[in-house]
Amino acid sequence: MCFDVISIFPQYFQPLDLSLLGKAQESGRVQINVHDLRNWAEGTHRSVDDSPAGGGAGMVMRADVWGRAIDTVRKPGRSVLAIPTPSGQLLNQRLVERLAQSEQVVVACGRYEGIDARVAEYYDNVVEFSLGDYVLNGGEVAALALIEATARLQEGFMGNAQSLMEESHSEEGLLEYPAYTAPQQWRGHEIPAVLKSGDHKAIARWRRDQSLRRTARRRPDLLASLQGLDSRDRQILAEEGW
Ligand code: SAM
């Protein structure tokens, strides 16, 4: 899978060479190309923005500069144009799973008051996405999140593919159970006894209970789409007031 990121701050993307993403690039599983938008700007100042039509504060990024950049990097085939914006759909695991099916994701990182709206209207397969209900200075941080979340779903990216299945927001969409490790006792807090019992069935049931409880307490909105609950699941959720 290939990512092409376009930004006026290409240096933002250096951390993508670290850790598992760095290894995935070395092995060729994932390709990440970072492009400087100013390569497609014209004039002595290589300006990428102009004042907003209709007046108002701030500057807007020019459609003509973005158009030249996207036309150059976008490949025919299963390509998605992802545009970070606080008014987009929330970047969640379902969206990430969908993006992971693409051959190429082009991420267009806006700055200032964002990119001229005609860019999102003009292209096919556009996903305008938001990292959350707050405003960042630019799309770079959102692009980093999208790339990392999408790349780790590529086959062979994780050493153990099982880790992807048991995570929060995967499969059923529950939050993951709490995790513990050594030392056995820390500042008066013990690891739950069941996790030391060696009884794999009891551990699996305890973990499921904890997932249900955590989701009910922290993200009750995720319970709406839950299906296939057994009687024990229902009992746990009833205890949590559901
Ligand atoms: N004036 C815009 C608005 O109110 O929707 C916000 C512009 S923001 C200062 C500049 C850029 O940061 C946006 O074009 C977008 O690329 C990025 N950005 C800001 N907040 C974001 C968020 N929550 N999710 C994704 N991208 C965001």
Protein architecture, described:
This protein has 242 residues and is α/β, with parallel strands linked by helices. Helices cover 31% and strands 17% of the residues. The protein has 8 helices and 9 strands. The strands form 3 sheets. Strands 2-1-6-5-7 form a 5-stranded parallel β-sheet, sandwiched between helices. The protein is elongated. The model has no long low-confidence stretch (mean pLDDT 96). Bound molecules: S-adenosylmethionine. S-adenosylmethionine binds at residues 84-87, 109-111, 113-114, 130-132, 134-139, 142.
Q: How many strands appear in the DSSP assignment?
A: 9
Decide which structural class fits the backbone: alpha/beta
* Apparent shape: elongated
Instruction: Report the span from N to C terminus.
Output: 41 Å
Q: Return Rg in Å.
A: 22 Å
Instruction: Provide the helix percentage.
Output: 25-40%
Describe the structure concisely.
With 242 residues, the chain is an alpha/beta fold. 31% of the residues lie in helices and 17% in strands. It contains eight helices and nine strands.
SSE layout:
Elements lengths: L1 E6 L11 H9 L3 E6 L12 E2 L9 E2 L1 H11 L5 E12 L2 H7 L4 E5 L9 H5 L3 E5 L9 H12 L10 H4 L19 E2 L2 E2 L9 H19 L12 H9 L3
Parallel strand pairs: 1-2, 1-6, 5-6, 5-7
Antiparallel strand pairs: 3-4, 8-9
Helix pairs in contact: 7-8
The structure holds S-adenosylmethionine.
The site of S-adenosylmethionine has 19 residues, from strand 5.
Organism: Scrofimicrobium canadense
GO molecular function: acyltransferase activity, transferring groups other than amino-acyl groups; tRNA (guanine(37)-N1)-methyltransferase activity
Subcellular location: Cytoplasm
